[in-house]
Design goal:
The chain is α/β, with parallel strands linked by helices. The protein has helices at about 20-30, 30-50, 80-90, 110-120, 160-165, 185-190, and strands spanning about 5-15, 55-60, 75, 100, 125-130, 135-140, 175. The protein has one domain: Spore Coat Polysaccharide Biosynthesis Protein SpsA, Chain A (Alpha-Beta Complex). The protein has 6 helices and 7 strands, in the order E-H-H-E-E-H-E-H-E-E-H-E-H. Helix 1 crosses helix 2.
Length: about 200
């Protein structure tokens, strides 16, 4: 791996009953939420995991065990809010641009990821916005001495994208197409109907 290695990080919770997808589970039940989590993670790792244009990392929670990861290199997310965990993971990666997405947007394609890395050639950051005010993807060029834009972000609110953009202090950014995270029963129904 060289200094220009591209890093694709998939944030994922181990797909098991009672771990993650709590909002979705409240709508559709624990079993259905786990079924979706397994499906989404499998689809994303098979789609994105063997592309020679980037290296795939799975930032996992809980931190142990990690032996369930079959594709990519597993690293722990660690403790704290999402901003703490994003910062920790990005800081542990070797040099090179990084693109991060969650495991709840299974329709992401290789073209989406290639477009994100291409956007980082001329922008400090790239976002895949979500209709709820958050984002399904963030990419960072990671220049020397640049602070990561995650401090003080109001996660899981309509302000998450706005807060992250404010932390970038007017740096050039690019946007991919809007996609919906599958966070609740209504979103899952749209996904299954092919509308997400």
């Amino acid at each position: 791996m060289t200094a220009r290695t591209r890093h694709l990080v998939l944030f994922a919770r181990r797909p098991q009953l009672g771990v993650g997808k709590r909002r979705l589970a409240a709508d559709v039940g624990d079993t259905e939420a786990v079924r979706f989590a397994r499906h989404a993670l499998d689809r994303l790792t098979r789609t994105l995991g063997h592309d020679p244009r980037w290296r795939l990392w799975l930032a996992v929670a809980p931190d142990r065990p990690m032996d369930w990861v079959r594709i990519g290199t597993a690293i722990p997310q660690g403790a704290g809010d999402l901003g703490d965990r994003l910062t920790r993971v990005v800081d542990t990666l070797p040099p090179g641009p990084v693109v991060i997405l969650g495991s709840d947007t299974p329709t992401v394609t290789r073209t989406d990821i290639a477009d994100a890395f291409r956007a980082l050639d001329s922008n400090r950051a790239v976002f895949g916005p979500a209709p709820d005010g958050g984002y399904w993807l963030i990419g960072l060029r990671r220049g020397r001495g640049e602070r990561l834009p995650f401090a003080g972000v109001r996660w899981s609110t309509p302000d998450a994208l706005t807060d992250t953009l404010a932390n970038l202090n007017g740096s050039p950014v690019a946007f991919l197409r809007e996609r919906e995270d599958i966070d609740d029963g209504a979103a899952l129904k749209r996904y299954r109907a092919g509308d997400a």
